[in-house]
Specification:
The protein is α+β, with helices and mostly antiparallel strands and 300 residues long. 23% of the residues lie in helices and 24% in strands. It is built from 5 helices and 14 strands. It has a 10-stranded antiparallel sheet. A two-stranded antiparallel sheet has the order 3-9. It is elongated and about 65 Å long. 34% of the residues are buried.
Amino acid sequence: MGGERNPVKIQILSAMDAWLDQVNQQTELTRIREVCVERLGDHLGPQVAALAKPGFGLEPASENRPATGRCRLGGPALMDPGTPWPMYDDDLPLTLFAVLDVDALAPWLGDSLPRRFGLLNFFCHYAIPHGFEHRYVDHRDPAYCRVVPADPARATEVSGPSPVADGFTPVPLHADPCLGLPNVPADASLEQLIEEFGLDPGPDLRSLGDPEESVLGPEWFDAWPPGEGYYPAAMHDDQAFGWLLNTDQLSSDGHTHLLRISSNLGEWEFSEGGAVLFVIPTEALRDGDLSQAFIEADMW
């Protein structure tokens, strides 16, 4: 019948999308390599360019930037039947912040995501709009947040218990594919960059300046054209996957960044107008153990 989905057609279209993403990604990688070589030389530049990771900038969908699959902010969760609503300390229901349609993002992510999940629901304790009594909670405690996977073919809309039943207003999200380099602090030196990522400095490192001095600085950031999604330190304020956007570290510590949501994106307001990052040990992600996900607060 006309309304039925043709699995062969879907498979062909998915393969075409993956091929186009690979072509576009190689084009962007070539541009990144050119800038890195220009700034860091023929030996070190390609090594830095090879650190680029795919990710997505997130923004509310619009007529010109349609929703990406089932990605959205707020609304009811999309969970497999029978999945319980996540709780903190058994009596505080967590709040749903976002749903990522990983199947829709997979062609661009390629092998950078060590394990695939159809849908990911992102929950976190958020007391302000719900009138919870004040109590100390450790945001590094995995129970403070939860990342819940779901099978897209089986997932159904699930509303939370009172008082989070209404949650945040559902807002479809557009995911803009980007490539990002590691978030390098403005005062980082070449020596720090090389040590952090195990790069080979080569024989002519001092031709770039004193490796112990802050030689990246403004010149490094100014090398990237304004508005390009892959320049260092900022893919987007709101981001799925890619490098951690945390200005206090270089972020090669065995963790995978899943989601960053800022105070600018939804109806929430984080401390100092900052952002919350959902992070998980890469080994746990590879094993499918999402219970080890935790959040990092990025204050501005």
